[in-house]
Design brief:
six-stranded antiparallel barrel; six-stranded antiparallel beta barrel
Length: 349
């Protein structure tokens, strides 16, 4: 509608009529002439109003519930915060206990091998480039860490240091394909070279192609010249598979490493080598075999047997002389002495 003089006059007229109707309705009370029209409007617009109320009331109720339960919501939020704090505390305590156990095991290994170690924590995995199996530790040159130092933990050989920074260092893990370490078999002293194969067992080439090896045999590090990169005696792993000997100069075996390379946390860098080779002293104690239960069978003598009622087998003679073979010799000495000429087993009779 255009804003013209006629439209403005119409708007003023409608407003005046509306005020007049309101005045008449108020003064008429229950007998208002507009009561019928109001009822007709209620009949027509009532269902629409109810529908709108049904749609709007739940929202209003929800808003009221949120407003009225503000204090309760605050209490729940406080409890949730307390629970989260407790969970974090418990998780932290469990992690600390795990680290303490790892540290204790590593110190025990270091003590048995007489290794001087610097403890460190794994703070990163992988390398910036490539697919090498490496980890980053929070110890570096400021802590006395140098390249080509042996890294171990409470389980055994972890790897060797390859790169050193002021406060961090990179460790090449023993399961990396580029990792090689000299090994020695427990007891037999057979020498070989172990190479990493990722998440598969280590591949070990024994120098003796006719070496007698079986599953369960254990290996330790053989050591390097000047103890770099490897000190001797560090547990490597346990044989799980042996390739058949084909007359080759070397023999291949497969070794499951003691260390779990996917769950490293606390490690130790050997900063001082042992004075003497610990040999097999650092290997864990072998589990004792479970004893086989024995069954004792008791045999009841038959009533028709040849036992002598007067002198049972093995029973002492009242006169101090044992009855030979459990039978009294009728021709023997009346004092219970056996007659050598008339023994029960005398072949002459």
């Amino acid at each position: 509608m255009r804003d013209t003089r006629e439209s403005r006059l119409l708007l003023v007229l409608l407003i005046a009529v509306a005020f007049a109707l309101i005045t008449v309705d108020i003064h008429g009370g229950e007998n208002s002439p507009l009561d019928g029209a109001r009822q007709v409007g209620a009949t027509v617009f009532g269902p629409v109003e109810n529908g709108m109320a049904a749609a709007v009331d739940p929202v209003g109720n929800a808003i009221g519930a949120v407003r009225d339960s503000g204090e309760r919501h605050n209490k729940i939020a406080d409890l949730q915060r307390e629970n989260e704090a407790l969970k974090q505390k418990l998780g932290s305590d469990a992690r600390n206990r795990s680290r303490l156990n790892q540290l204790d095991a590593m110190m025990k290994t270091a003590g048995e091998g007489q290794y001087g170690i610097k403890a460190a924590q794994v703070i990163g995995i992988g390398a910036a480039q490539g697919f090498s199996w490496t980890v980053t530790i929070d110890a570096g040159s400021r802590d006395g860490i140098k390249r080509d130092m042996t890294v171990l933990n409470g389980e055994g050989l972890v790897g060797r240091v390859t790169t050193v920074g002021p406060s961090t260092a990179t460790v090449l893990l023993a399961n990396d394909p580029d990792f090689t370490v000299g090994t020695r078999m427990e007891n037999s002293d057979e020498l070989g070279f172990a190479t990493g194969q990722g998440d598969r067992p280590l591949s070990v080439q024994l120098l003796n192609g006719k070496a007698k090896v079986k599953a369960g045999d254990r290996l330790v590090t053989f050591g390097s010249q000047s103890d770099k990169p490897f000190v001797p005696g560090v547990p490597v792993g346990e044989v799980v598979k042996v390739d058949p000997s084909g007359g080759d100069l070397t023999r291949t075996i497969y070794v499951r490493p003691y260390v779990g390379f996917t769950k490293l946390d606390i490690v130790g860098i050997v900063v001082q080598a042992p004075r003497t080779d610990p040999r097999d002293e650092v290997l864990p104690a072998k589990p004792k075999p479970t004893p086989t239960p024995t069954v004792t069978v008791t045999v009841t003598p038959s009533p028709t047997g040849n036992a002598n009622p007067d002198n049972a087998a093995g029973e002492a003679n009242p006169n101090g002389n044992a009855a030979q073979n459990g039978n009294r010799n009728p021709h023997g000495d009346p004092n219970g002495n056996a007659n050598a000429n008339n023994a029960v087993d005398n072949r002459g009779r």
